[in-house]
Fold this protein.
Amino acid sequence: GQNIDQPTEMTATEGAIVQINCTYQTSGFNGLFWYQQHAGEAPTFLSYNVLDGLEEKGRFSSFLSRSKGYSYLLLKELQMKDSASYLCAVRDSNYQLIWGAGTKLIIKP
Amino acid sequence: DVKVTQSSRYLVKRTGEKVFLECVQDMDHENMFWYRQDPGLGLRLIYFSYDVKMKEKGDIPEGYSVSREKKERFSLILESASTNQTSMYLCASSLEGWASTDTQYFGPGTRLTVL
């Protein structure tokens, strides 16, 4: 079966750095997405990786290792507004998105 | 900016009622999707459509149907609502085809409670 694993919840301190991991087992791979979802709101796109390596976008970076079936989202200089759930999704060989359950990130002052 | 709107943010229905959830996007996107989101589970795809009048079953289509009569509008129908259909329903759209970088844009969601 297809599976995406992420930690259920993480806590970090304002101003710090946090890494949210995502491991996947899917039938084929056509890219990995990270979305952010604030409580009660719609998910919004953060990043996309299809090749191995690090993609940097401001305070957020996303890393992919296809051979390991592994990705992480790195958030730097954490702000209170970063408190949200972070969803990892993989596009499989049928170009369908397989979604993880999401990681709830709690930022403390 | 892409805008995806859903007809209701909150909806309460009774078991056995027919329920319509409407979704409209304003960016001429080809693809539209209906998901449900439940605590502890990832988004689960109910149905999707890649063109007007076209529909494809997702992972959990049982108990649901869809309609896409116009490009901008994609409706989800619960023929006879049941309590296990209490959930958050999210609509999404994406530009076209299956381009690798094709991002999905989501509506605000409808929280449906079936009593």
About this structure: Chain B is about 0% helix and 50% strand. The mean pLDDT of chain B is 92.
